[in-house]
Specification:
Length: about 350
Amino acid sequence: MTGEPTDGPCTFGAVAVTSSTIVPVRVLVTGGAGYIGSHLVDALCEAGHEVRVLDNLSTGKAENLAGRLDRVHLVNGSILDAEIVEQEVAAAQLVFHLAAAVGVRHIVDDPLNSLLTNTRGTENVLAACFRHWRKVLVASTSEVYGKTSKFPMSEDDDRVLGSTSVHRWSYSTAKAIDEHLALAYAAKQLPIVIVRYFNSYGPRIDERGYGSVVANFLRQATAGEPLTVHGDGSQSRCFTYVDDTVRGTMLAAFTPEAEGLVFNLGSTRETPILELAELIKQSVGSDSPIAPTSYESYYGPGFEDTRRRVPDVSRAREILDWEPTITLEDGLARTIEWWVKTHG
Ligand SMILES: NC(=O)c1ccc[n+]([C@@H]2O[C@H](COP(=O)([O-])OP(=O)(O)OC[C@H]3O[C@@H](n4cnc5c(N)ncnc54)[C@H](O)[C@@H]3O)[C@@H](O)[C@H]2O)c1
């Protein structure tokens, strides 16, 4: 996994580039055909960068890049294929690593493949970045905090996890290993940055994905079906509009002072799931009933949820000058507009 860097230092990592004076670079986005990845690709293209995407299209879709395929090169391959990773990293100057098996449902359904993708895949990407000395941003998750009861969650807080016999914690563990790996390479001076996303939602959101609660409610509300709320619906999340997620990601990658650090990227507005269901019903103009369901009926026996997840974003505010700007109401309106256009 280790090896000495074969190329010269990535000047991009060392040059003082601010978000307002970004020099165009050749960028690799792993997972770039996915929900967040494709929005990131849009933003990178708009900023004038040359983009290649490495994605095995397991949950991502080529159509997410449809408007960009004249400028973006999509490589249909896996981060588990060390040779392809090596080639793609070598050809890039900067790497955004977003490819992952995402979403608690996926992890619970196929714990082995998810775990291997999220550990070995990241190991491949980071080792190649080290060999070719490429700056890399690693996408992590609020799930790393587990079931902590300290709020808001700060980047250096302790992690609190459940038993290894509960598969859902393997996602948190794998992403934490990714962070440890990235930080271990940082200790060898490789320029890295880590972002922890909190429930991103927006156009292209996938029902099977991480933010599936928004997509599920949208589908149910527009089809006039009951909105299935797990438990009593008092569990809350901080829903973050994708434009804010992507802007924070770009700032983290292009701000030299961010190197070697971990950043929470999430809205600070806490929304109980029941309130989200009501808000989506209202925004869609749906008279669907709200149907409480047990976690077990969806995830199987022994499932553990986290009650709250609230980020402390002061580090992102201070170092990246980032703050979420899109309200939940505005973000939902934009997402619903896309949903109606694409789902009829
Ligand atoms: N959506 C969120 O709110 C959220 C929250 C926390 C963290 N994240 C992280 O953000 C990143 C993007 O997540 P997303 O929500 O866009 O999910 P997504 O499923 O839409 O994106 C993941 C992408 O990775 C690709 N992929 C999966 N396995 C691969 C493999 N072996 N090789 C190559 N590509 C592979 C998928 O096809 C998909 O395009 C992930 O790293 C995820 O862990 C997302």
